[in-house]
Amino acid sequence: MHEAMLFDRLDQSRAGCNICRWRCRINPGKTGVCRMYKNLDGSLYSLNYAMPSSMAVDPIEKKPLYHFFPGSKVFSMGSLGCNFRCQDCQNWQISTAGEPVSTGNGEVSPQQAVSLARQYGCEGIAWTYNEPTVWFEYTYDTARLARNEGLYTVYVTNGYMTIEALDTLGPYLNAWRVDVKGFTDDFYLKWSGIRNWRGILQTAEHALKHWGMHVEVVTNIIPSMNDDEQQLRGIAGWIAGSLGVLTPWHVTRFHPYEQMASVGPTPIETLEKAVAIGRQAGLKFVYVGNVPGSGNADTVCFNCSGTLVERNGYRVKLTGSAGSKCRYCGTELNLRTGQGGG
Question: 22 and 60, same structural domain?
Answer without folding.
Answer: no
